[in-house]
Amino acid sequence: MELAFPTCLLRLYRQASDARLGRGPVVVHGRKGGERMFLGLVTKAQTWWWSVKEHFTDESGAVATEYALLLLLIALVIVTAATALGLAIKDKFSNACTQLQGSNC
Known about the structure:
Elements: H1 7-20, E1 27-28, E2 31-32, H2 35-57, H3 62-100
Antiparallel strand pairs: 1-2
Helix pairs in contact: 1-2
């Protein structure tokens, strides 16, 4: 899955770049200028977007997560098996006690 930079920010970045190159003014809050502030904002947004994109495409931490999930699943299987075995043993002892008709079971 390819994450693309939002087109609205690209359009604003191009407008600010055009203003910086003298191709037209950018009006920010009713004032001319403010290109540095706007370019800084767009740069921060672009950097944030790329870091989010990198976070979703980077798979270096996936190995540790996969091991943790495997460990969790193995632990669940062991607990389930031990519980089932314990209940089966309890039933066997109850049946043996009933067969012997002992009062001290």
